[in-house]
Amino acid sequence: VMACRVINKRRHVGLQQLSSFAETGRTFLGPVKSSKFVTGGDCHESVLISSTVRLLESLDLTSTVGQLLHEAVQAQNNTYRTGTSTLLFLVGAWSRAAEECLHLGVPVSVIAAVMSEGLDSCREEVAFLQVPVHNVFDRVHNSRTISGLETPHVGSCPFLQVPSGAGGIPKEHDFKHAASQLLTVYSLSGRPVKLPEFFNLPVKVEAGKEASEGLKSSVHTDTCSRKSVLTHSRHFNRTDNSLWISKQDGFLEQYSAATPKTYRCCDLVELTVGLSHGDLGTMKLVEAAVQLQYQKACVQQGNCTVPFMFDVSRVFTCCLPGLPETLSCVCSGYVTVVPIASITLIEGLENQPLRVVLIEGDLVESYHHLGFNESTNIKTVLDSVELQGDSSEELWTNYVLQVLTQFNVNLVLVQGNVSESLTEKCGHSKRLVVGSLGSSVMQAFAEAVGAVPVTYVSQVNADCVGSGISVTFWSTPLEVVGRSSGMPILLKTEGINLITAVLTHSVPAQMQAKEDRFWTCAYRLHYALEEEKVFLGGGAVEFLCLSHLQILAEQSLNKGDHPSLEWLPNTSCWLSSSLPAYRPAVLKCLAGGWHRYLSALMCNSATCPSELAARTFIEHHVQNATASGSPSAYILNEYSKLNSGIFNSGFLDKLEQVPRVYDIVTPKMEAWRRALDLVLLVLKTDSEVITGLGHAQMNSQEVGGLLFL
């Protein structure tokens, strides 16, 4: 991948490099992604790339800036598994914003301070677009998830494989039709604004008579027999039986002892559709995994009143390239691949309880645990290949077989690597050895069958051996005939808390991308259920940031702030006095980054014909939002007209109804923070290299304006 931007060495090279790197991942932003072929310069081999993480792994990032960018993206991916495309794009957009500020003559320290201040203000403002997850569940109870379209549900999911003996799949919930009730609030300009009842969000009231009195409004909905309350006051003088608690995130939550809320698997439909971001097929697999975990939790608790939780640490993937995508499914247990030569062995062990030993580490003759210190006083008396007899590995292999025979073990699960000769000899004696299992898999099997993991075979005793695991083919051998990579098998036992998503694709080059998409969807749903809140998606959050920064910039200009020619960099109050003067320009440049983000999002989503049309469309809504006096109220009102957000309403007239779109909260916030931190780090480093900061500080009176370039 060649960066199309020419680097000007007379300017801040680091910021230019960030912009060039970020431009390569522009097509990965939004639900409609375009894959790339990355070709090696030496061997001319091509790799198909479909995500930001894989792109940066394939590029030769030898520069310091490139390595910092790669580390930032990796940190985001390792923690959240999502938000990397947003991070990469914002790095490029805000690098350009910082360059624009430098061209305007804004000092580096002021750029860093105002940009940080602006982003912190945006993070506080977007809290008004957070929706509690239980509101999403309630909406499924009270109305159709997608008006005019058949609502998908977990019960009819074709990807779910329920083991025999498991409980039935919950039936589809009978969705009720309820008219959307509207609440009236007042914006900063005193104009009434209509908000849909579903959001149930507080709107800031900073001016007018309503603010001093503490605006309160409630609506009684006959169809669902519940109350929606919108308030800005800290004091709740209510006399009903329900308790309304103001949470730290700004939402109101109702608690009532008489009517506790319980939800069913079908209530999860709207949330999963909204978090799929267009990848419904992959999210269906994740949805099925949640249902399996929920069923297991219901069986353990004896009822189905347990809250939705999604433990991704007990979910695994098994990739089978070369098979049709229709074979992708989710099943209880652990699916792995064994050599084709093991088919006869599997047929002999199938459908019978197996005694199992769990080995931590590698199962090889030379393996020693971490921290092992080999004796140093051993001397070799004779070392000759002419000496006939069994080798040390053969003696070790025979010893392992003797131990397995002694305790009647016919299944060995190993966390690390396995000796090939041992695997072959165990197969001859009708014993199956499976290696490369994760620590979570070992722990799950240990809990289910009562086995105790050991480090060495010499530690095996009767108390360490578990029983009750069964092995079977994941699919019939005829369906996977022609696969040279191996045969998939399923290891399961009663009560096992493991779920495997079997991912298949007819094109092997797309296999990695499909697995990445699965984990992205899985972690989106995981964090949504864990945090119990989501953002309104479809660009609503970023649009609020753009509108909010525009208002802040205009407010700074209206105060009459302008640069003073008498400022001296070496004065103690220099930074504090210069912030108001440069704040409007920096805030506008920061808002320009959000503008570029929304424009690229619309172009990649195929919701506008050109980038010019996208920018015009965004500007139109920005003007309307700022004129309304309350951008958050404007967004909520526009969002209620079309579920997918204001950026689809002008270009999707043929689609009468679009599913609601949601975003997860913390990963998005962290992507913003990491992007700006990286830009400011490179900005400050560039300025130090260009100006020689230490020398400039000592001679600030002489160099004057050359301190910041």
Q: What tags apply to this protein structure?
A:
709 residues, four-stranded mixed β-sheet, elongated, TCP-1-like_intermed_sf, ATP binding, Bardet-Biedl syndrome 12, BBS12, GROEL-like_equatorial_sf
Topology:
Elements: H1 13-24, E1 36-39, E2 46-49, H2 52-58, H3 64-80, H4 84-103, H5 108-125, E3 130-132, H6 133-142, E4 160-161, E5 182-186, E6 192-196, H7 209-213, E7 216-221, E8 226-231, E9 243-246, E10 252-255, H8 269-276, H9 280-301, E11 315-321, E12 329-332, E13 334-338, H10 343-349, E14 354-359, H11 392-406, E15 411-414, H12 420-428, E16 432-434, H13 439-449, E17 466-473, E18 487-492, E19 499-505, H14 511-531, E20 533-536, H15 540-558, H16 574-604, H17 611-628, H18 631-641, E21 662-663, H19 666-691, H20 693-698, H21 700-703
Parallel strand pairs: 4-12, 11-19, 14-15, 15-16
Antiparallel strand pairs: 1-2, 3-20, 5-6, 7-8, 9-10, 12-19, 13-18, 14-17, 17-18, 20-21
